Amino acid sequence: KPPKLKKGYRATAIELRASKKHTGRDDEIINAVFTLGLLSRHQIQLMFWQEDLKSVSAVNDRLRTLFYRHVLYRTVDVSFEMERAGLIPCHVYTLGPTGEELLALDRQIKRSELSYKYSGRSSQNVMHDLMTAEIYVQAVVCAYTHERELVKAAKQRHLEKEAARRFITQNRLSVTWHGEHDAVIWQDDKEL
């Protein structure tokens, strides 16, 4: 259990929102946990530390901070069940009361008006929800990987266009671009 807060959950949420201690990534994690019900440490790492998947200690440090601030809570230990299901055994997180307050502040509602209730779940229910979340996480990771490849291809394409432009300029050719992908180069009214 995290230590008790000196202030209430709402006051802590207001203080976090006003300070630089709370990041945009924290908000994304809170929203994902709210939407999916729970996420494992490994799933959070895959979704929100994609640029540095080797940084387990950074992920653990941040999640520990969010845990001690009551932004996230840990579920019952399901490490054994996770391993049997082929998942990496680690902590599983749900939204804590400070996290609920942060969401309520963003939505300008009371915490009691949030439709998030995830406490006291059995390990069987946690595993079911964790496997459901895993489908979503893998889709996000796949989309991120695909997007990264598209960005890389676009940068390469841009470099190719720049090289073509330099060639065209140096050789005093005229060019007509068709869409984003093809170029037709003309010299003395002949298509090259």
Description:
- With 192 residues, this protein is mostly helical.
- The protein has seven helices and six strands.
- It has helices spanning 9-18, 24-36, 41-48, 56-68, 79-84, 97-107, 123-170; strands at 39-40, 72-74, 92-95, 174-178, 182-187, 190-191.
- The strands form two sheets. Strands 1-3-2 form a three-stranded antiparallel β-sheet. Strands 4-5-6 form a three-stranded antiparallel β-sheet, with no helix packed on it.
- Strand 5 (182-187) and strand 6 (190-191) form a beta hairpin.
- Helix 1 packs across helix 6 (97-107) and helix 3 (41-48) packs parallel to helix 7 (123-170).
- It is globular.
- The model is unreliable at 173-185 (pLDDT under 50).
List the helices and strands and how they pair.
Layout: H1 9-18, H2 24-36, E1 39-40, H3 41-48, H4 56-68, E2 72-74, H5 79-84, E3 92-95, H6 97-107, H7 123-170, E4 174-178, E5 182-187, E6 190-191
Antiparallel strand pairs: 1-3, 2-3, 4-5, 5-6
Mean pLDDT: 81
Task: Determine the N-to-C terminus distance.
Answer: 72 Å
Radius of gyration: 24 Å
Number of separate helices: 7
In short:
The chain has helices at residues 9-18, 24-36, 41-48, 56-68, 79-84, 97-107, 123-170; strands at 39-40, 72-74, 92-95, 174-178, 182-187, 190-191. The chain has 192 residues and is mainly α.
What structural keywords apply?
single chain; 192 residues; mainly alpha; three-stranded antiparallel beta sheet; 7 helices
